[in-house]
């Protein structure tokens, strides 16, 4: 990232967080938790960072997709959440993490 040539990582992270807030608004009101550190620090310390799909954000805002707390258990067409709430569902999108396999694609065979 070009800004890292002149600015400290923590400052670039703060700038990115402000820009994300300006573009996306307060996503926590939709049940999406922001990490406690910025994306560059996450990438440096954990080797990965959070990704938000703009199309998914719009569906969450319009309530076509509902973000809920952790799932305790599944049964036929009902999901029980850790807070005791039970929901009748059509489908579940699990956001359990992402690991890029791009390096695998780029290997010479």
From TrEMBL:
Family matches, as InterPro entries: Auxin_biosynth/cation_transpt
Cofactor: FAD
Organism domain of life: Eukaryota
Keyword set, alphabetical order: FAD, Flavoprotein, Monooxygenase, NADP, Oxidoreductase
Organism phylogeny: Eukaryota, Viridiplantae, Streptophyta, Embryophyta, Tracheophyta
GO MF annotations, alphabetized: monooxygenase activity
Full protein name: Indole-3-pyruvate monooxygenase YUCCA8
Ranges annotated as spanning the membrane: none
UniProt family annotation: Belongs to the FMO family.
């Amino acid at each position: 990232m070009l800004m890292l040539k002149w600015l400290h990582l923590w400052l670039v992270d703060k700038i990115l967080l402000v820009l994300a807030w300006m573009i996306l608004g307060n996503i926590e009101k939709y049940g999406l938790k922001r990490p406690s550190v910025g994306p560059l620090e996450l990438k440096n310390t954990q080797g990965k960072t959070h990704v938000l799909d703009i199309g998914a954000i719009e569906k969450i805002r319009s309530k076509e997709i509902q973000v809920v707390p952790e799932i305790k258990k599944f049964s036929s067409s009902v999901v029980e959440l850790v807070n005791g709430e039970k929901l009748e569902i059509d489908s579940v999108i699990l956001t359990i993490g992402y690991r890029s396999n791009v390096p695998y694609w780029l290997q010479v065979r």
